[in-house]
Every structure is written in C-alpha cells, then in structure tokens.
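Inputs:
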Amino acid sequence: MAEEFPAENEPALLHENRRLFLKQSVTLAGLALAPTPFFGPAALNVEEIPGGDAENVKLSISVNGVKKSLSIDPRVTLLDLLRERLALTGTKKGCDFGQCGACTVHVDGQRVLSCLSLAVMQQDKKVVTIEGLGKLDQLHPLQEAFIKHDGFQCGYCTPGQLMSAACCIREGKAGSEAEIQEYMSGNLCRCGAYPNIVNAILEVKNSGQKV
Amino acid sequence: MRPFQYIRPKNVKEAVDMVSLEENARFIAGGTNLVDLMKRNIETPDKLVDITHLPLKKIEYHSGTLRIGALALNSDVAEHAIVNSRFPLLAKAIDAGASGQLRNMATVGGNLLQRTRCAYFYDTAFPCNKRQLETGCAAVGGINRMHAIFGLEKNDLEKSCIAVHPSDMCVALAALDAIIITFGPKGERKIPIQDFHRLPGNRPDLDSILEKGELILAVELKSNTFQQHTHYLKIRDRAAYAFAIVSAAVALDVQQDQIRAARVALGGVAHKPWRLFDVEKALAGKPISQNTFRNAAAVSVADAKTFEHNAFKIKLLPNVILEALMNAAGLEPSYD
C-alpha cells in the first residue's frame, strides 16, 4: 500500500525550499550587520552560523517493504515522518509523549513508540505500520478478531493495539488473560474495550495462526 | 522542539569528546525520556550525539561476573537466560517497569539516567529547583503523595527537591550492589551504584555523579547467593504501566531456614534507589518467619519524613517489605 505514496511529496519539498531560503536570508542578514574585518570567505560559509541551527540530515529507511531516501529535519519523530511526510496516517498520534501507545509501530520486528523515536535515528531500519500489517482484501488475523470481538468503539487506539498485539503474541506473552493484560498495558483504550481486545488476542494466539 | 545538530560518532572516544568539549551537547540512545523532555523544552541541547551504533549492547557472563552493555535494551536484559537464572530480581524489576514498547527502546544506561517523573518538573508553569536552580519547589506545598520520605533531613527545602527516582531496574541494581562502569574525559572508572545517584541537597539539577561527557559503558553484577529467594513488589495506582508509589526489591540468602544475609532496596521513596541497611541487619542470622520479617520491616520507616499527602507511605512501606520478604521466602502470610 505504501507504494501509492511518492517518497518525496510536494509539501516536503516546499518545506525544504523554505528552510534553504531562511538559511540564505540569515546569512545575508549576518553579512549586512557584520563589521568589515569579518567580510571574507568565512562569513559566506553557512556552516559558520552560530550553534543550534538544525541542518537537514539524509535518511534511508524501509517502510512497509518500500525503501525511502529522504532528507529530514533531525527534530522530526518517526510518527510525524510517517503521517506528515509519507502520508501513512494509519499510525495515530494520541498523547505524543509516550504514554498511550496509539503510535506503536514495528521497527526491525520490535514494537516501539514512534512518537518518542527520532526519525533520523532509524537509519537502515525496517519499519512496519498498520498499513503494512494486513491487506485491504485480506485482513490480518488480529484485525479479523478485533472485528469479531468488538475490540474497539471509536477506533483511534486500534492501529496501536493491533501492532502491539502482534508483537505480544510473537514475544510469547499472550499465554493467558492476565499475561495479555500485563504485556498490552502500554496501549490505552479510553472507550474501555479492554476485555474484548484481550479476547481477540487470546483467540488469535490459541488459533496458532501466524502473526 | 528547539533546533539541534545531529551527530553520529564513530567510537566511544569520539562520542565522549563531542559531549565533553561542547557546551550544550547530549548523548541520546533510547530517547524515551530525553525526546519527551526536548518536546517540552525542558532539555534543549544544541547537539545530539547518537550513541546507538556503538558496540555497547552485549550481555556477557564470565567467571562470576555479569556485564551488561549500557546499550542493552531493557527487554533484552529481562529476557536473557543468565539474568533470569542468576539474577532473577533484575529481570522481575525490569518487567515491572514501563510497557513492552518502552522496554524495547530504553537502554540500561538510559534507565540509570532517567529523570524524575515529578509532575512539577515537567510542568514549566510551576517553579522547580531541579529544572531551574533556586526557583523553589512546587511539590513541598503542592500535591506530594508520590514524593520522597527518605534522604531529606539535611535539605533546605527552599533550594532542594522532594522528587523520587522513577526507575524499577535501579532498585534491583541497588539491592544487588551493581557497579557502573563509565568512560569520560579522565578515563575509565567504576562506580558502586550506592555512590552513582545523588541526594538532591542544593544541587537537585544533578541526579548522578557523572561528569560532563562521561558515558556509561556497562553495568556489572557479581554472582551472589541470593538467586533462590528474591521478589520485586511494586505498588502503583493501577495494575500495570504506572510509576511506583512504593516498590521493594528483596533478596535472601537462606540456608536451613536461617537467613545468612539479606538485601532490601526501595523505589518511590527517595531521590535515589534506597537501600535499607538497618532492615538487612535486622534480618541477618534470624530464622525465616513472618515474625522475623514483620520486626525487620518495622525498622524501615525510622528515618522517614513525610509531607501533606504522602504520610500513608509510613504505614504502607512496612507492609510492602513484609509481603515482599514473605514472597521471597516462599511463606504464606497469615493475617491476625
């Protein structure tokens, strides 16, 4: 599904151009104000802009099996990269502070919180989002089970619940209701669909299907 | 988030140079606390030195010593076979902290250095001596049910801090006398965990004795005789995924129902993981029994100081220690 979205979409390019423009403006402004002895090659060098200036950084990353080569601001979280840059909006922004689990994705097969992951630190990593878990014509067993057991009401936490649940089973931590409750505790559901979520996970685990 | 320069050093030496020589540079590994703090502009580094590529991930056991690389993930440590067989207390404590996702991101070094979860530290609308020295402490007269009861007696509360260290892992490391191995501008050093974290005093901004640019390389644990009888009991506001109100890591060396030695450390009660040496002394040489444990646990709160909302910890704490000890010894409690 990710192939539908170009690696470099338009808003991102606009953003880059704006940054370049700002950088040039700052340099020129600096030149205008600088005392004469500072006129010279050093003053024209953008590297000389005083500390704290964020330079864009190159990033190679695989998202749902598609390799992307990007140039990003180092402040961008993996969550914002997915949603704002790659238009993969299935991954949800809940608290944005690592407390709710709505942003859970897989990085190199492990469940992590994309809101607390800087995208620039994911060099050469393989990311799987909810868009890469199942297919539209063939849902993932956990997606089927969540529908069957009413594992959601509003659905906002569901992508995170599903990504987390897949790893919970793979990690061997879905052996009982109590174990699922403990090892899924990083995914909050304010609708309170917890019992149904647990039932859905338990059913998939007991079915022995590949997750 | 403020702009910063992102740097990926080639080796430990380069990483240490970058942070020690730059005025406002920080190491980043798991980022589970630092990124959170940067989003709130509580941490505002100019340079972020990503150390996740450095070769500090190994967990090795050689001639009686377990060496856990600083970049080993919390989940890798908790799942490790030797950790579970020889240091089960550590695995239990790590599993009691955070969530599956966070344990997959957080490193052992980062866990040692995580900041307090005091709500006033995170809310920049309130004064906080830890965030900004000599601005005052909003917790002293505020909502302080989560706050410290130990390590406060010598502090000037106007300038100090009553927040607690939030880690579960560190409580187990304190009970197991871990050694923290670091490398800094002055070379390598070994720091016993008792000396690693600080009491707040008049410098609550400093959580540990690490110097600028000093990097944790590994944590070492010596093999011990406690692995048969350990327990980590964490009391929190919900059943899972919450910081401790009080937690206890206990370990007993038992032979023929006699306690040869004991270790008791607490979380959620002080600015650092809190060892209870007096309780340990009260246990040593005694037979395992509910009476022994109750009498020893009663010693635990002798030096406690409480605030408006956390006086309940004085009553809770001996019960938590008692239950943890009963569990470690495999005894069924009888309540009269």
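The two ends of chain B are 56 Å apart (CA to CA). Flag for discussion at group meeting.
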